[in-house]
Amino acid sequence: MRILHTSDWHLGQHFIGKSREPEHQAFICWLLTTVEENSVDAIIIAGDIFDTGTPPSYARTLYNRFIVDLQKTCCQQLIIVGGNHDSVSTLNESRDLLACLNTHVVGGVTENPEDQIVVLKNHQGEPGAVVCAIPFIRPRDVLESQAGDSDTDKQQALQNAIARHYQKVFELASDKNLPTVATGHLTTVGGQMSESVRDIYIGTLSAFPASAFPPADYIALGHLHRAQKVSDQAHIRYSGSPIPLSFDETSCPKQVVLVDLEPGTAPEINELAVPIFRSLKSLKGSLKTIQQSLEKINDDSPLTTWLELEVSTDDYLTDLQKPIQIMLEGRNLEVLRVRRKREINSAALQSESKETLDELDVAEVFARRLNDEDLDEQRTASLSRAFNEILATLDDPDGDSKTARLEDEKELMA
After folding, report:
1. pLDDT in the model for residue 190
2. Which of 11, 172, 277, 403 is most deeply buried (CB count within 10 A of its CB)?
């Protein structure tokens, strides 16, 4: 049977003040056509279908219409697992209704592992594969914390607990005597990040080793937005996001993954390139160099090209607006962000003092504040880890316990 693997749609994303609705709509239309052209039997969306736990109404509409429209194609089986941006309760509120449309939603880990087992049928209507539909795993789902454990002990305990959960679900799936697919929404060791991906800290665990996954025929992962294999193993991979969710993803081709499964043989895996629906470009250099780069851009696309500029100049930021505005006159181009290139010299230090918060992200602000303190390496690492864990809870719509958040905050304030 043939499965299509995709993830990280982030419906409802608010991108530097802009909606991604037109691009998401274009992608969904393309996907429905692609499903028909490639005779896909089932689709797996490996987490982060939404960008926030309370998605805007248009994002919910896109989601519901996609599921309904999918039933009009040759592919009438859909599996959706929750990601760290998804709210378990938001996904599960329509779970029973969507089950009537051949859609299996696993918003979060449940007490009964059988809830995460889905048998898929091939185009002949016979069982063709079984899916271990494992969503983003929160620490409270698989582990009770123990007082007095070191960070290393906590990391190892959590890694072992997640591995046991995978193994438990995989053993149930293996009883079906069918090709197996496992899903996951997490960071793996060695995974390539991008600007739009915030590190997932599952408790104190920042990355999960590929060797800890069960021996499934294919492992469909979500969370990292760059399409990639894990540990150079073709059957363990991230499909990546279908549209670039940050400017540093523009150089990475976007794709979905087709997986053909047959009993007793290795899966046949093919990548399908997703078209570029809107161009995002990051230009760097002097004003003259940027102007030359702008002249080479083809802006005939129906959707306005979005730009990020990094200007090599010591001029104050607002002084750049007028020349940039002149460069863009009559073009289907829009600048969303302007940054100054920061050089390590006295001029750069003077320029840095004129920076605005719009030019920095929250991690940069914290890193600079931390750098002002006279702390040893161990203390700095501990504070950085606690800060990243707090950021991770902000991305978790359902949140960890209030006590856990307070402990992290006390650590930062100490």
Report:
1. 63
2. 11
